[in-house]
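Please, why this fold?
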Amino acid sequence: MNGCETLIKPEAENATTEKSSHNRPTFRPSADIRELDRAYELVVDVPGATEESIELTLKADQLTVEAKVADQAFDGYQLVANGYPVGDYRRTFRVGDGINRDGIDASVKDGVLRVTVPKAEEALSQKIAVKRVD
């Protein structure tokens, strides 16, 4: 962070899992927030999710990621132990006023969701020339 107020930050959530209304565990996925010159980038782990199963919504000051993961199908082997429980993902981020809400873009590859949240023009830093006074 650069010491300025962050324009996007994760909501405070205590639980890492919760039961959804359809009786499946819902996990709070790990996420990084990166500040770039002209945007923020959210990197959210959603293993097993596809572009069709991810829902990204922006309502008021909350950006919410929800991802549904299909039950696993096992071809050619039988599962002896299950160390990776199957469930869905949900995480919310608070969005400040200095965001260009119309420019938000998202893509997913190999279970990693990347959301680009551009800064509004008024939130971008400006370089101000300093004049010498004699």
Remarks:
- The CA atoms of residues 61 and 94 lie 6 Å apart.
- The longest strand covers residues 88-95.
- Strands lie at 8-10, 17-19, 25-27, 31-35, 39-45, 54-59, 62-67, 88-95, 105-109, 112-118.
